[in-house]
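INPUT
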Amino acid sequence: MTYFMNEIAVDKGALGLTVQQLLDENCRLATTVCLDQGDYFEVLYYFHRDLDLVTLRVKVGKDEELPSISGLHLPAALIENEMKEFFGINITDIAIDFQGRMLLTEASLQKPMLKNNANRMEG
Amino acid sequence: MPWMMPNILKNLFSSPATRKYPFETRQYWAGARGQLQIDLARCVFCGLCQRICPAQAITQYGNKKDPDVTIDYNPFACIYCARCAEKCPSGAIYIHESHAVPADRKITYGRNDISLSKGELS
Amino acid sequence: MSRITFPFGPQHPVLPEGIQLSLTCEDEKVVEVRPVIGYMHRGIEKAAERNPYPNNVFLCERICGICSFIHALSYCQLVEELMKVEVPPRARYLRVVWSELSRMHSHLLWLGLLADSFGFESLFMQCWRARETVLDILEMTTGQRVIQSSCIVGGVRRDINADQARQVREMLNKVKTEIDAVLPVFQKDYTIKARTVGKGVLPKGQAWTLGAVGPMLRASGWAWDCRSLGYAAYGELGFEPVVENGGDSYARTMVRARELVQSYELVLRALDSMPEGELAVKVKGAPPAGEAIMRTEQPRGELFEYARGNGTQQLERLKIRTPTFANLPALLAMLPGCEIADVPVIVLSIDPCIACTER
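OUTPUT
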């Protein structure tokens, strides 16, 4: 592809600051991707800088808290809810918190995207 | 409304856009993927179709050498991608252009067209 | 003044799919909106981790029935990028042809639905009749109307031969005549203007920061289209994004109307300049360990896909961010302050695809 990929590895504590810097440069969040890496989560934040992309790579332990960036950038709220629901990452202070009921219901398999979670989809 | 007038007048004097189905049916395009048929007389039971089917609609019962080996095809799981017909080494799978007509029960085909249906519509 | 909260959806005449907007109103004015989603969640991302990677093409196609070809295309391009596969030029042109035909039928469907949302039934039928011819072209060239299954990792499965190309041109000219008959209605009709001009205004700055994509963003004055990245054969076809400056529902209608004509031209240009050659290359092995990103332009906006391979036949992770997911925050920002009667038009003006959103 013809676009540039800038990748920045960020510490969990400095996430808010880096996001604010990117927003000041007129970037916006494209999406986030969460990866279950066994004993920790890897969260990738993709930002649009015009047609290019900027990536922030954050490592979060399974029982650690991740501060939400939806306070700085409201559109992040939906995708953060999704990550919280699908992976069970403890994201704190989401601007619009669905309490784990955005896409799933009480009857659904909880935290379905975790690696060791048995998939109930059969047939 | 005035900008719609030419269309309205044209539609008033032209033939209808719909057809009187089922008395008048549409011609199928050549190469359309309507129905799948497995010819068990030509099948060599290699099991390739079962392995590549993205919808797990084809199941082979038994080994190649077994006397009662057969293939079960479930049209209700089939997504009509025709990958099996494309890859079949013995050319035993055909895709027909016509679509299946509505039916009130599920039918599966086995060797010599013996119905292997496991019962009524469930 | 007392407030009343009532549900808009999940069953509503303008919504083909299930989404609920919980509207809090003061008199006839909407003051607060809360989305309730989750009616269509199918766990496709999880299912994709279990399938061998070639089978996911057929799974991804079923995320949405309207942009189905472009979902397959982006997945194929994603895996090709991960596996460093070079696609033959003819396949790239054929992919453009089918992408643009998909865009045409999606936009015609949307224009019809917009007319339907304020009760202009005859225009709705007119648009959908034109769409039927586009679907016929798709069936003729790929074998099926809506879920085409013609794109595979490494290329395409079907060719458009000279005879078919001639037929496609003839049928497209018929579609063009029908489009030319309906577009002036959308542009000039008094009722349509009364229902769309100034409704759901999204200013230029806000459109960007709220994450709007596709026709939403382009109607607010941004020349931002993923097709200008030049994936498939777009780089060779001289593509220019369509831009409008109004930022309201009318501007969004105009963007889609002009894109319809643009798609028609792109299909013809791709058919004219299509090189001869192979349709697909054989792809061997499994996706290696690594990451890849693919962004394509769907009828509704940017589709973002991320994949991570681990050397096996299965992908370790497939993430799909669909355009409506990105457009939802903008919708929630547009609704407060509007009248209840305008809610259907504004909701429709983002071209919501809920099956995409929830995957």
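end of record. Residues 23 and 59 of chain C are 35 Å apart (CA to CA).
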